[in-house]
Specification:
This protein is an alpha/beta fold and 270 residues long. Helix content is 44%, strand content 18%. The chain contains eleven helices and ten strands. The chain has helices spanning 15-24, 46-62, 73-86, 98-104, 116-120, 122-131, 143-150, 157-167, 189-195, 206-219, 250-266; strands at residues 4-9, 29-34, 65-70, 91-93, 109-114, 137-141, 175-180, 201-203, 237-242, 245-246. Strand 3, helix 3 (73-86) and strand 4 form a beta-alpha-beta unit. It starts with a strand and ends with a helix. The structure holds D-glutamic acid. D-glutamic acid is lined by residues 9-11, 13, 39-42, 72-74, 115, 118, 146, 182-184. Residues 9-11, 13, 39-42, 72-74, 115, 118, 146, 182-184 line the site of D-glutamic acid (DGL).
Length: 270
């Protein structure tokens, strides 16, 4: 029987990874879980988010998942290690792409934007400390962008003004890379691009995370289309859940489809 790949986030941000997974790994059965009852995660406590993530993992293991992708930088930072100890299925988590950004910034500064909880998190702090030898990395929480994304406000004046205000504290000419350290932020690549000087490149960890998922499944002989699973490559399926409830409403599914379309447009902005 064909098993599932579970992908989850606090909300719509994780569709970024689902979108890439569907392109890179067709023929799979995906379960996408948005924890809409509890979004946002990034302004809550570590203990609270740990509890939410545990609930999602329990759901995934009860839904025949062969691997789970934590499509939320915040949840990875606070819960990935604990979940790997507790559950036996492979758990792949997205992290802010700080290491590649530092490597590619050619001595210029690196600005990491993420949620307040990610930025406070010890595991994230030690990731930064490990790669930021020259003290080039600055951290900026942008919780407002999560709210704009959940409200579907992608091109509003208020959203643009918020981002402009938050970035105005930085001399952006000194920067070479901007790390999108929250999956919700990928919906706003056009606004970032408009506000940043041309030499600042946008980078995020989504493609690397899906490549890691592919490697893990391949190593276990569990990729659809491999000898063990006789899947039809064109036969990709996705089921959406909001905090454990199946999404069946046609209008809601259309809204999700529009989010995929927006991400398709944003994907080419660097
Ligand atoms: N999308 C999530 C992330 O990547 C967090 C958004 C939130 O719930 O605050 O960190």
């Amino acid at each position: 029987m064909m098993r599932n790949i579970g992908i989850f986030d606090s909300g719509i941000g994780g569709i970024t990874l689902l979108h890439q997974a569907m392109a890179l790994l067709p023929g799979e059965n995906y379960i996408f879980y948005a924890d809409t009852d509890h979004v946002p995660y990034g302004t809550k406590s570590r203990e609270t988010v740990l509890g939410y993530v545990d609930e999602v993992l329990r759901f995934m293991t009860n839904h025949d998942c062969k691997a789970v992708v934590i499509a939320c930088n915040t949840a990875t930072a606070v819960a990935a290690e604990a979940m790997r100890e507790k559950y036996r299925i492979p758990i792949i988590g997205i992290e802010p792409a700080v290491k590649p950004a530092v490597g590619e910034s050619k001595g210029k500064r690196v600005l990491v934007v993420a949620t307040p909880l990610t930025i406070r998190d010890e595991r994230f702090r030690s990731l930064v400390a490990r790669v930021d030898y020259a003290h080039l990395v600055d951290l900026l929480p942008l919780p407002g962008l999560v709210e704009f994304a959940e409200d579907g406000e992608f091109e509003s004046d208020a959203e643009f003004a918020y981002l402009q205000r938050e970035l105005s504290a930085y001399d952006l000419e000194q920067y070479g890379e901007l790390v999108l350290g929250c999956t919700h932020f990928n919906y706003f690549k056009d606004s970032f691009r408009r506000l940043l000087p041309p030499q600042v490149r946008l980078i995020d960890g989504s493609e690397g995370t899906i490549r890691q998922l592919a490697r893990v499944l391949e190593a276990r002989g569990e990729l659809a289309g491999s000898a063990r699973e006789a899947a039809n490559k064109n036969d990709t399926s996705v089921r959406y859940f909001y905090s454990g409830r199946a999404v069946t409403d046609a209008r809601e599914l259309e809204r999700i489809e529009r989010l995929h379309q927006r991400l398709e447009k944003m994907q080419h902005i660097r």
